[in-house]
Amino acid sequence: MICYVAYPNSPDLKSANALQTYQTLRELRRLAPDTLAIVPRMRRGPSAFDEVGAVHLPRIGIGRLSRIYRSTLWYYAERTAFAWMVVAYLLWRILARGERYPVVYVREVILAFWLCLLLPRLTGARVIYEVHDLESRNPSRAKERWARPLLHLLDRIVLTRPAALASLTAAFREQLVRDGLRDAREVAVLPDAYDAARYAPQDRDAARAALGLPPEATIVVYAGLTFSYRGLDLLLDALAAAARERPDLRAVLVGGREQERAALAAQAERLGIAARVTFAGSQPPERIPAFLAAADILAVPDTVTDVTASPLKLFEYMAMARAVVCPDLPALREITAGDGALHVPRGDRRALADALVRLAAAPALREDLGRRAAERVREHTYARRAARLQALCRAVAEAPALSDIDIAAV
């Protein structure tokens, strides 16, 4: 039996980590109905995680104290409290029900820290940590200078103490091996995924008609829950430069917070391209595929991370069989195979503008890129991800000793 522990920050799935957690759990419980999922109860009222049978433990809102003193450390304390509740709850299930979970899979750094230290001793469980980045280089990490040694200690423990790691990318696994932190056999590569029931090729003209978008324009679409750290300013700069050669270019930006949209609207005004940029605002999840289908070009102008980059939108874009332009990072090439997208040097506005011009002028190239994108991403569904996660947990649970774990090929 598997215990899956996560700390999604949006019970109504309005964040990428909540979406990824929900989709993975939905498919995992289809494969293994006895999976125990534990998530926090953020507030009163319904939670999307009720639909996947998750156990909700209380969230103690320590993070709200950041209104008094702004610091991520409050959120570390909040997650610490939740981690101890998880340990107490699992001990209760052992004592009251005789239920033991040989593997605990966790995908949050503070939870991983406490669970890998406590659970092996208290319950005998082996912990697998799904690592998304180093906390010491997380842009939203604790900023206090005195806390930096704490962040490095945190990274070292969560990277070395769990029985095994699940990395989103092979590039990060290679870095862990180079740094002497893990043996390659102890790190499985488990990329992000997409919902095959929602993201699939659709007719472009029908999508544009439904959304009221001009049929004759060459449209670049970006869709994301947030615009922060995603390089949307870079995309607007590139669009302004490209539009001088291709006046048919337009951009549709879907999602983002109100202040993010306002800042980009002001930038578009300064660049003289306000009429070329449509801000579609936040959209229900079921409407996002229509915006992607309406595109000629789908853009990933930048990523939050580099060697651990596995953005959900890249998988969703590729599944729509549209031309994708994205940064030239080894982690992204793992998904695109290099030819399932048009890669440009990261942060290079001129190169991004040139890519937009090239794609706008070449419908056949766009079609070819879209076809290859759909082929490359086909294996990265949530159903497939859940099956690999289940196989990973089984391999860790069945290894006679920790030294016998070999999950690199899972």
The first-to-last residue Cα distance is 18 Å
Structural class: alpha/beta
Q: How would you state the average pLDDT, rounded?
A: 94
Total E-strand runs: 13
What would your notes on this structure say?
The radius of gyration is 22 Å and the shape is globular. It has 14 helices and 13 strands. Helix 1 links the parallel strand 1 and strand 2. The chain is α/β, with parallel strands linked by helices. Helix content is 43%, strand content 15%.
Short description, anyone?
By secondary structure, this protein is an alpha/beta fold. Helices cover 43% and strands 15% of the residues.
Give the secondary structure arrangement, pairings included.
Blueprint (H helix, E strand, L loop, with lengths): L1 E4 L10 H16 L4 E6 L13 E4 L14 H25 L5 E4 L2 H14 L3 E6 L16 H13 L3 E4 L2 H9 L8 E3 L14 H8 L6 E7 L7 H12 L5 E7 L2 H14 L5 E5 L6 H6 L3 E3 L12 H8 L3 E5 L2 H7 L5 E3 L4 H12 L2 H15 L4 H17 L12
Main attributes of the structure:
single chain; about 400 residues; about 15% strand; 6-stranded parallel beta sheet; globular; 7-stranded parallel beta sheet; alpha/beta
